[in-house]
Task: structure prediction
Amino acid sequence: MSVTELAPADVWRDKIYSGGWKTGGAGAMPVTEKATGAELGSIGCASAADVSAAAAIAKEAQSAWAEKPGPQRGDILREVVRLLQVHRDEIALQIVRETGSIRQKGQMEVQMAIREILEAAALGSQPSGMITVSDVKGRHSVARRIPLGVVVVITPWNSPFILAARAIAPALATGNAVLLKPDPQSSVSGGVLYARLFEAAGLPEGLLHLLPGGADTGDALVRDPLVNMISFTGSTRVGQAIGAVAGGLLKRANLELGGKNPYIVLDDADVEAAASAGAWGSYLHQGQVCMAVGRHLVHERIAEAYVESLVRKTEALSVGDPFKGNFHLGPIVNERQAANVDRIIEDSVSKGAKVLAGGSRDGLFFKPTVMVDVAPGMPVFEEEIFGPVAAVTVFRNDDEAVTLANQTRYGLVAAVVSADLRRAQRIADRLHAGIVHINDQTIMHEVFGPMGGLGLSGNGQNYSTLTNADQFTEWQWVTSRESLPAYPF
Ligand code: NAD
Result:
């Protein structure tokens, strides 16, 4: 591998990675730069036959991998991190070009992935079980963790690098093989980069496969009889479909889905600081983040000042090609998604909401948008937008704030801002969300805290240092005794 370049387009041109780089059975698809539409290369598409061949290779390779001492599995992950540090600029720029995110976000993904992989590497050095008690003298009883086998990792396009890391790394560290399918819009940053990193780090062949493709490829992966677990991050609609199939086949499915996250600003908050945090939470990556601030719930006493500050900050933001300059916002990922943001704004305006800033776009470049007079029943209050829209709803007291915040079927993140920590905590205790932050906005990713959603945001199977061993292994009870005991017949 070149020391200067991790993933030159020649390596992956029209290829999948499955026991080496090879031609995909379902043709090829373009890899594009979202800000310009320019083609960066062309990647292979995996067919149903590729999927079943990959699953067979993975199952075979997994047995030997599971027998390898855990610390040595961890060594491979630590080597991946070393390579990742060497190539971090190239990786961050690939994320910028392929997903349209600003540079800061690309760099954040790399940094968070490093943490995820290092924490996962340490899983290989943790105790793999415990001696349990037994009611019978002379019976030695052990509970031990065993790998699940073949794990499918399906990721979305919006944060492809970090969302792949958080599943691939603990799955491999705990002795599983991985079949990775990134979204077609992020095949390189969600797939090729990992295939290259693990290949260069010396991961034995057959343990990590990159199977690019769309829904058909994903569906074949979920259904393959040799697959034991599906780790899925993406929309609620697709998560529900995968959950239904996996449930029928009795496969474990970790589902991390969409959100419509409330950000509650109480009347004792520092208004400027709260508006700044709220703007970041709604506009980072053009709002295309599951944890984005989806609803600004603001106390009526400070609502005017908050909106004034939010509008002022919003109008000062620049939008452009993040590969070419230091803009605050890049493009929306595609025309269909941008048109959906148009629809949400227009429908909400027809129901009484007002646009105070932005509200329009130049192609995929959407101006950050402030909407007020937002109420339940409007699409901007109800739906995950995945666009740079700060929607403000006013409340009169703490009870009403809680009612509004919980008025959603999602339950990913919620946040409360107040100068009075006890008051904020009392509100936080009543919020229906898998993640709650006090005095911060909603977008936060740390491998150390359990990350997962409630309600339509997921099935609560968190990813984190605390929970990964449980997610990617199953318990086995093993007993032994010196000789067979006597039985009545
Ligand atoms: P999506 O659900 O459309 O696609 C996600 C992945 O699923 C892609 O790889 C896609 O090809 C694949 N897929 C589609 N249909 C499939 C099928 N029938 N079977 C198997 N795989 C299939 O999501 P998206 O638009 O790429 O991503 C945005 C969504 O992801 C948003 O809803 C966002 O909130 C969510 N998300 C959630 C988290 C989280 O941690 N909770 C993180 C990031 C994004």
The longest helix spans residues 103-123. DSSP finds 16 helices and 21 strands in the chain. The chain has a mean pLDDT of 97.
